[in-house]
Write a structure and sequence with these properties.
It is built from 15 helices and eleven strands. By secondary structure, it is of the alpha+beta class. The chain folds into three domains: 50-81 and 127-235, no CATH class; 88-122, no CATH class; 238-411, no CATH class. It is 47% helix and 13% strand. It is elongated and about 115 Å long. It has a seven-stranded mixed beta sheet, with helices on both faces. Strands 1-4 form a two-stranded antiparallel sheet. The two termini are 40 Å apart. Strand 8 and strand 9 form a beta hairpin.
């Protein structure tokens, strides 16, 4: 099994992360993609399993400040709950509370006046009120999110995993409080916020209100900015530098092509699982450029690798490039360039990228016969020297130069062999 070596310089990582935070919301917005919300758009863009993204969001929720503050004060909060009271009339010989003299007189007027019966109105505490339903709903969602973030039987991944597991335990114990068990965990409606504001102790008014607003936004209607913040804080960790590098380079190329051409069909930005390109740009009346992310353009077929697997009755091999730039001229695919991205400064690891590129070129030579059809992209200053390829099939360049280079190819003339 291959090992991903991502050792991105902290300064470059900060730059890439800031670019992704600035640009990714536009890619995930409902106005830009034909997708049911930014969560599904992020799943397709990043090549994530939906369960993985849900876990990222669950971790983000549990470690958010409003949630942490609520859980910290939860044991004390459930010991002093908000309640309402009802004072039903109780007729009997035992006086358990204040006597309702008017009701006692009416009762004796309609029954034996000699009976020693008194009507009292004991105060009964009622816990099933909107504020406590809101609390029950929040705690239910937090326990669910905590279980998704760190499963009870799994190993806690580091300090934050231990913290989430501890928080989930606190929430679980609070939900088992006798008075809270009888409160339905259903959201009482947004009018509950007005009742929460009236709390004088601070737990409901400050902690519960903040956590409820945050949870309902993140779980029910997360915005593109919410998704990006979660990815930035919890997904693009140093061990995921390779993914951050891929997305950052892809966005840089998209921006560069947008400056030399017009985006075609902006509502079809993401690959849709049916072989569609990531983005398409019209450069001039006859030239179109298509970006393919983690997939092959159909025009690159046939595949030598697939043919060999079929011939020798072997399982289909996975041979998928990071990015493919496909050039169309007069409606016909005429050239492709493969980009292999390596977020590493290791010379040995970068050299392995050259081997991958040669394998891609040999596998699907139909559109990859021109010089410099395979590009290795690495962080600037990663221990290589970029040079003119001088007819070689491979070119090595930096993350800072790749986007202008793609834009230059997009507007350059097509060779006679390709045309």
């Amino acid at each position: 099994m291959s090992v991903i070596d991502s050792s991105m310089d902290p300064a470059l990582r900060a730059v890439m992360l800031s670019e992704v935070q600035a640009l990714l919301p536009a890619f995930l917005s409902a106005a830009s993609v034909e997708r049911d919300g930014p969560v599904n758009a992020a799943v397709e863009l990043l090549g994530l399993r939906e369960s993985d993204l849900r876990r990222v969001l669950a971790v983000h929720v549990m470690l958010a400040t409003p949630v942490r503050e609520l859980v910290a004060e939860l044991p004390a909060g459930v010991r002093s709950p908000n309640t309402s009271s009802a004072r039903p009339r109780v007729a009997g010989r035992t006086i358990t509370s204040g006597i309702d003299w008017a009701a006692t007189a009416r009762h004796r007027a309609t029954s034996s006046p000699l009976a020693d019966v008194w009507v009292t109105r004991p105060a009964n505490r009622i816990f099933d009120i909107p504020e406590n339903r809101a609390l029950a709903w929040v705690l239910l969602k937090l326990e669910e999110r905590g279980t998704v973030a760190v499963p009870p039987t799994g190993e806690a991944p580091g300090a934050w995993g231990d913290e989430i597991r501890s928080m989930t335990g606190v929430v679980h114990r609070a939900r088992q409080t006798a008075w809270l068990e009888g409160v339905p965990p259903t959201w009482p409606g947004d009018e509950a916020y007005f009742r929460l504001k009236a709390d004088r102790t601070g737990f409901y008014r400050i902690r519960l209100t903040a956590a409820a607003r945050y949870l309902r936004r993140l779980l029910l209607e997360p915005s593109s900015d919410d998704i990006v913040q979660a990815l930035s804080d919890r997904y693009f960790e140093p061990r995921e530098d390779w993914k951050l590098f891929e997305i950052g380079i892809l966005m840089r190329i998209t921006q560069a092509l947008g400056k030399v051409g017009a985006r075609v069909s902006p509502t079809r930005l993401f690959h849709n699982g049916r072989g569609g390109p990531f983005a398409r740009f019209r450069i001039n009346p006859t030239r179109e450029v298509r970006l393919w992310y983690q997939s092959w353009p159909p025009a690159t077929l046939p595949s030598v690798l697939d043919d060999a697997a079929r011939y020798y009755e072997l399982p289909s091999a996975v041979n998928r490039p990071d990015i493919v730039v496909e050039l169309f001229e007069s409606g016909r695919s005429v050239r492709a360039i493969i980009l292999e991205l390596k977020a590493s400064s290791s010379g040995t690891y970068l050299s392995s990228g050259l081997s991958q590129l040669l394998g891609y070129l040999r596998d699907r030579p139909r559109l990859l016969t021109e010089p410099a059809s395979g590009w290795l992209i690495a962080p600037t200053g990663a221990g290589f020297r970029s040079k003119i390829p001088n007819g070689r099939p491979l070119w090595v360049t930096s993350a800072d130069e790749v986007a202008p280079a793609v834009a230059s190819v997009a507007v350059s003339a097509i060779s006679a062999e390709s045309a």
